[in-house]
Amino acid sequence: MGILEVKGVGKRFGGLQALGDVNLSVQENSVHAIIGPNGAGKSTLLNVLVGKLIPDTGSVMFEGQSVLGRSPHEINQMGISRVFQTPEIFGDLTVMENIMIPCFAKRDGSYRLHAFETVLHEKELVAQAEQILIDVNMIDKREMHAASMSRGDKRRLEMAMCLVQEPKLLLLDEPTAGMARADTNNTIDLLKEINEKRDITMCIIEHDMHVVFSLAERITVLAQGTPLVEDIPEKIKGHPKVQEAYLGQAHG
Amino acid sequence: MLGLNKKDMNLLLLVAGLVIFAPFILNPFPEGSELAQFNAGYPDLMQRFVIFGIFAIGFNILFGLTGYLSFGHAAFLGVGSYAGVWMMKLLTMNVVPAIMISVVVAGLFSLLIGYISLRRSGIYFSILTLAFAQMSFALAYSVLTPLTGGETGLQLSLNDPRVLGISATETGSIPVTHFFGLEMRDSFELALGSWLFTFNAGYYLCAAVMLIAFYLSIRIFRSPFGMMLRAVKSNQQRMKYTGLNPKPYTLAAFVISGMYAGLAGGLMVSMDPLAGAERMFWTASGEVVLMAILGGAGTLIGPVLGAGLIKYMENILSKINSTILHEWFAFMPDGIEDVMVTLVYPFIGKGWHLTLGIMFMLVVIFLPGGLVEGGQRIARLFRRRGAKTDDSGAEQSQNTPAE
């Protein structure tokens, strides 16, 4: 049994079968990559996992509990965090506040009327937030406006916001999209470290094969809404079906 | 102290100083002088300053923090007023129960309207609140006449039961509002030379309530709850995927600001026990939006400044007429005097709205952060000039949000 079990999930948008019969099993503490050509249904699948879309058929179980029909904030409270393709952060707030918000969400749940506490008096949470900022090398930017940072910093901040919640499963939607090679390598190192030190299971959607093959322990290849193969990276590299999906048939 | 940091404490003390010494500050010109018409230190106007200050502080908790622009907040002020007058009709002329019931009723009413309106955001939310407020106005004006007094408004009468008080005084008139015996209209006049200062009991009650309201708003701004409200404004998507439900946060902000509006309504009828439907008209809702934006939405002190400025203009600028203008420009040659008076005339008297409109445009275009931003820019200018030799330091404080 994996930490995340997707069984027979299908989703149709009008005449388009975005997801066919998707089965997926993500093992605890592993890094699982989902790859596939454009329009393969990767993002649709991710949106199903986080509660943004409800599939027409099938089931999604996280730690033995169904996530279907729950809203995004409930699914997050179960222990699933998500990093977006373009960083989603609180642009009007400072870096420190960006980190404090998930700290409070983790401690107090999805809603609490804490109008007579003071943010900076919560010493324990402040220490926790400072620690994560040290870990991702951003402590010198703590009072900066989040919107005024570079794209790479925004992504690191978003990652830190997810990490401070200590999720059980971290979903990453193209975490290195639009990054320079050096930044990409930094991100790979950061993700490796996260996976090893913090025991966080990761599920990555990625186009960049360099990232996929340096990180993933298992890879699922999606094409036209259905999984073609699922295997370890070494076997995926030379798999004829994968080549076919990406490059088209050899003898057309 | 009081759970505030030094900067916030100083701000609170500054506001406290301003409202306590308002009778002096607002009466800078000696009686009988030509400039005495700019004096705003009379009880009626001072009460309005602080009451609308409360209204704007509350509105700012919703609009300034969450970014949800309500165009119907006057409805809560109106409902609070009616509830307050009813309390005086039925129970007692003591203002405390009246103010309390105003807050409670306005809170319940805003819970209902907020619950429905917050199903939408952006312009649709604004339109929904506007529609509800106009419905409330129409109901109060016509259908609900037995409850609201309709066109004439709800007023006290000699036949009111007033269970804990008296229906009429010995002289056969309607009793006056009081705070445990201290009559709200009680005033103490202090003559210093040719200056006359009035200290009114009602004003000081309103001022005390306003200081409490301001203190609570500082606490909310600095609390995790306040931070969540700013998160609602910044990025609801990220909020949801961080495990937070934006809905109850926004609704709580809506109800809190509705209760502030109710409090303002309750105080209004405590000073003058009469509630009319026009208090709920959409222009009244628009006015508080102007106050918040003019002063600086999302800042602590901004809405109070905005409320003060608008009420000052409404009451002082509108009193100036062409005779006074002729006096001002009397030193000029006759022809030019008439030209000047003709030029300035549209901006004063009934034309004060024109001045307000121009001011509003200038603020929105050049100072999007309102008067507070203007103040900050001036302060920065001075600081930079003063500290040219030892640079740094000043830069750090620029990013501090929500002062």
Report what the structure shows.
The complex is a heterodimer of chains A (252) and B (403). In chain A, 37% of the residues lie in helices and 24% in strands. Chain A has 252 residues and is α/β, with parallel strands linked by helices. Chain A folds into two domains: 1-79 and 167-252, 3-Layer(aba) Sandwich (Rossmann fold), CATH 3.40.50.300; 89-166, no CATH class. In chain A, a hairpin with a 2-residue loop joins strand 9 (218-223) and strand 10. In chain A, helix 3 packs across helix 4 (123-135) and helix 3 (95-108) runs parallel beside helix 5. The longest helix of chain A has 18 residues, at 181-198. Chain A starts with a strand and ends in a 5-residue tail after the last helix. The model of chain A has no long low-confidence stretch (mean pLDDT 89). With 403 residues, chain B is mainly α. Chain B folds into two domains: 6-29 and 38-284, no CATH class; 316-388, no CATH class. Chain B has 17 helices and six strands. In chain B, the strands form three sheets. Chain B has a two-stranded antiparallel ribbon. In chain B, a hairpin with a 2-residue loop joins strand 4 and strand 5. Chain A binds chain B through residues 50, 71-73, 76-77, 81-82, 84, 88-94, 97, 100-102, 104-106, 108-122, 143-145, 161, 165, and chain B through 3, 5, 219-220, 222-228, 230-231, 233-235, 237-245, 248-249, 252, 256, 396, 399-401.
Outline the fold blueprint.
The complex is a heterodimer of chains A (252) and B (403).
Chain A: E1 4-13, E2 16-26, E3 31-35, H1 42-49, E4 57-62, E5 65-66, H2 72-78, E6 80-83, H3 95-108, H4 123-135, H5 151-163, E7 169-173, H6 181-198, E8 201-205, H7 209-215, E9 218-223, E10 226-231, H8 233-237, H9 240-247
Helix pairs in contact in A: 3-4, 3-5
Chain B: H1 6-20, H2 22-25, H3 43-66, H4 74-90, H5 95-117, H6 122-143, H7 145-148, E1 154-155, E2 178-179, E3 182-183, E4 187-192, E5 195-200, H8 201-222, H9 224-234, H10 236-240, H11 246-271, E6 274-275, H12 282-295, H13 302-316, H14 322-328, H15 334-344, H16 352-366, H17 370-386
Antiparallel strand pairs in B: 1-6, 2-3, 4-5
Helix pairs in contact in B: 1-8, 3-8, 3-9, 3-11, 3-12, 3-13, 4-5, 4-11, 5-6, 5-11, 8-9, 8-11, 9-11, 12-13
